[in-house]
Amino acid sequence: MSQRLFSAIKRATVPKFLTEFTYYSFAFVSWVPAVIFFDDHVAAFQFVNGPSMYPFLNNSYNESRTKDCCFVDKRRPYKDLQRGMLVSFWSPAHPETMSVKRVIGLEGDRVYTRAPYPYPYADVPAGHVWLEGDNAGPNKSLDSNHYGPISMSLITGQLKYIVWPRSSFGPIRWWEFKGKTRVIKGWNTG
Predict the structure, then answer these.
(1) Does 52 qualify as catalytic in the annotation?
(2) Angstrom distance (rounded) from CA 118 to CA 120
(3) Residue 107: which region, alpha, beta or left (left: phi > 0; alpha: psi -120 to 50)?
(4) Distances (CA, A) of 74 to 16, 140, 167, 173
(5) Whole-angstrom Cα distance, residue 128 to residue 148?
(6) Is 16 a catalytic residue?
(7) 126-170 pLDDT per residue, tens
(8) 135 near 50, Cβ under 8 Å?
(9) Which fold has domain 45-184?
């Protein structure tokens, strides 16, 4: 009896769709860890919405619901930071949210703050940066003027290119930024 059962199982053919489904499922699933690693540690696309970075990014935020899409380099997120660079980071005010702001002050700098920061200036401690949005309007940007200097370990990448909209496509020319926040360069003169 068992001999006939085993021979029947051996002769049974697996339907073609099942073998193809298994093959493609395995091929797809085997790439998932590589894609997650690439997104977390190499590069990613970041959507920027809201008025915080207006007018440099999202220059049509008040006209439509479109978002700017930027290419973020995540290989060395806080290496060689310079004043004016755009970075993505985990927001200290909302830890589940990824934010985009401009580096205003580096460690050792003295930054003259804006409201609602409780003091007229802030000294940026070692291992921290001062980040602000480009929109100077009141309550348009949740940045270091709300939560103070942030740890560099919260920075996840540097924004390098604008991918969308096509009218803004190209490298982010952060060095052309002329900020209004007064900064006295400190011991880190980078």
Answers:
(1) yes
(2) 7
(3) beta
(4) 42, 27, 25, 18
(5) 10
(6) no
(7) 999 999 888 777 677 888 888 889 999 999 999 998 888 887 788
(8) no
(9) Umud Fragment, subunit A (2.10.109)
pTM for the whole structure: 0.77
Strand partners, 61: none
pLDDT tens per residue, range 71-119:
999 998 888 898 989 999 998 888 888 889 999 999 999 999 888 888 8
Annotated catalytic residue: which of 52, 91, 141, 144?
Answer: 52
How far is residue 168's CA from residue 50's CA, in Å, rounded to a whole number? 17
Of 74, 88, 101, 141, which one is the catalytic site residue? 101
Q: What are the backbone dihedrals phi and psi of residue 80, each rounded to the nearest 5 degrees, phi first?
A: 60, 40
Give the CA radius of gyration of the chain: 25
Supply 113's token pair: 């703050």
Residue 27: how many CB atoms within 10 A of its CB? 9
Per-domain boundaries in the chain: 2-39, 45-184
Per DSSP, 168 falls in state: G
Tokens of 111: 């930054």
Strand (E) or helix (H) holding 161: strand 155-164
